[in-house]
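Workshop exercise sheet. Pairs work together: one partner reads the sequence aloud, the other fills in the structure field after running the prediction. Swap roles for the next sheet.
Pair: D.N. / O.F.
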Amino acid sequence: MGVVDKIWSFLGVVEEEANEEDANLSQFKEKEKNRSKDNVVSIHSNKTVKVVIAEPISFDEVQMLADHLKTRKQLIINFEKTPPAVAQRLADFLSGTIYALEGQYQKLGNNIYIFAPNNTEFSRDMQVLMRKSNYSPNSPGGIR
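Structure field:
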């Protein structure tokens, strides 16, 4: 510390500047800490996805199935062992439940459906889409 610094220090000027600089530095660090918290985005927002697989026999099971959807679980239902009239009632009820939850459902195969809440996105395999539309990249115009 030089003579001038000692004089300024004696007069209290240096300490104020140092304190002011410390205060500014503290404020800057606090702002940076808050800014970094705002910019942090969790990649893993959903810990696990629950999928319930069911083979209902009677309409009495519909409330339990709808409750799974209400708790945001995906529901795969196999209606192969379900009497046709009961399967239709179950499908109608669950379709209404999905509509109310703004979800979606899709047929996966003969008598097999998936019902999913609105946090699920369905994506079809391109091979399946091409087979269904008779698309062939080798034929003129792409269509067989």
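Discussion prompt: Helices lie at 3-11, 13-39, 62-70, 84-100, 126-132. What would you look at next?
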